[in-house]
Design brief:
elongated, alpha+beta, three-stranded antiparallel sheet, 5 helices
Length: about 150
């Protein structure tokens, strides 16, 4: 039995903002593109008519552009968590929680433990601000140590 996706009304509008934010190299994947008015589904394939490109059936994190951004952020952060300095089980966290905002200034390296803590704290009142303060505190502290200030 096949299930169809229930589309929202804005999925039929060409004036609605694109879920890929017009950056298909970073955000063109099944989850974002299926509900888009510009996607065409043929058999098990998706094609974007706006950007004239096939869409990955996988998730964003399998895209080469994401892997490149991830490598840049890991190198910038010294291949370690910016909070606890652990160098295993590293994740890339979107500071503003917008998974389509892959500007490297919005990305930070966290270990799996600190990443889980950050997401748990985001659900608390005032949590987003607290997570941002903690990340910025440790980033600034590490920058001062590395520059000798």
């Amino acid at each position: 039995m096949k299930y169809e996706i229930q589309l929202s009304l804005d999925s039929f509008s060409t004036i609605s903002p694109l879920r890929c934010k017009a950056v298909p190299g970073l955000n063109a994947h099944k989850k974002n593109c299926l509900p888009c008015v510009y996607s065409i589904r043929r058999e098990h394939r998706i094609f974007c008519t706006r950007f004239r490109r096939p869409v990955s059936n996988g998730q964003k994190y399998s895209l080469k552009e994401w892997k490149s951004a991830r490598d840049i952020v890991l190198a910038r952060d010294g291949n370690q968590c910016v909070i606890c300095e652990r160098n295993e089980g590293l994740h890339i966290h979107h500071i503003d929680r917008d998974l389509t905002n892959d500007d490297t200034s919005n990305l930070v390296t966290l270990c799996n433990f600190c990443h889980a803590r950050a997401h748990a704290d985001l659900h608390r009142e005032g949590g987003a601000g607290q997570v941002l303060r903690v990340i910025n505190h440790y980033r600034l502290q590490r920058k001062q140590v590395s520059t000798g200030d």
